[in-house]
Amino acid sequence: MSWRTVVIASRCKLDYSMGYMVVRAEETKRVFMEEIAMLILENPAVSMTGCLLNELTKHKIRIIFCDERRSPYGELQPYNGSHDSSYKIKIQTHWTDEQKQTVWTEIVTEKIRNQARLLSELDHNVEAELLTEYISQIQFADETNREGHAAKVYFNALFGKDFSRGQENYINAALNYGYGLILSAFNREVTANGYLPNIGIFHDNMFNHYNLSCDLMEPFRVVIDRAVVAMKPDKFEKEEKYELVSVLNDTVNIADSSQTLINAVRIYTRSVFDAINEYDVSEIKFIKI
Questions:
Q1: What's the rounded Cα separation, in Å, for the pair 197 and 211?
Q2: Per residue in 174-229, pLDDT tens?
Q3: CATH number of 262's domain
Q4: 139: closest CA among 102, 111, 114?
Q5: Residue 54 sits in which domain range?
Q6: Contact yes or no for 62/187 (Cβ under 8 A)
Q7: Residues 56, 195: one domain?
């Protein structure tokens, strides 16, 4: 089972040999392909062989490309992540509004519940109680937008009354970077299960190639939020980015077991597809923070 997030930060050549990714720089290193879940190329000077790209794609390893500022700007994903992709896509395009909205209601409820848990953990008890109240007010498909109301209370409690997600600052840079890593992990699992990340159950932006992944990742955002609160970034450079990358290997509880966050994404994603296809939201396995 893949679990490693590999970051390539220096100029080198990447090749493939006998089941390993070979990193050729001043020192040659080898990484077993079966262990890699995600490959982040931070340095634009990295070169790769076509053979390696082919094998990475076969192994469903998510490849994230970064620009000269070491910020993610794109990723590589296969056309088909599963042998029955055509069948899965046909099912996906026939999901009813009721199916999608039922699952979305559960997802947004769990997102707010996790936010309340984090606030309580950090002794923001008044705000945690308010989010708990919002949970009791959630209507089908969150028609009254309790998610939006909860977000304002939540972020102001974490980062101060003057904080806004639209600001350009180190906190938002860290949040966006971490969310991007989580999103990429979900893109990998959506594709691996044979579905299209473009077609969401709630998000429906024609310019968003990852509407479904954006839907599914919502309860996982709190993991990044917690890391950024602990980080208290007064800068956002290589060390801070590596700290967020390491979160992908943190241990969380899901389905009565301890799993790395990467594995939890896999378990949860499959459970959501089971829930929506079987009309049974009790199938969804959420993480416990």
A1: 6
A2: 999 999 999 999 999 999 999 999 999 999 999 999 999 999 999 999 999 999 99
A3: 1.20.120.920
A4: 102
A5: 4-76
A6: yes
A7: no
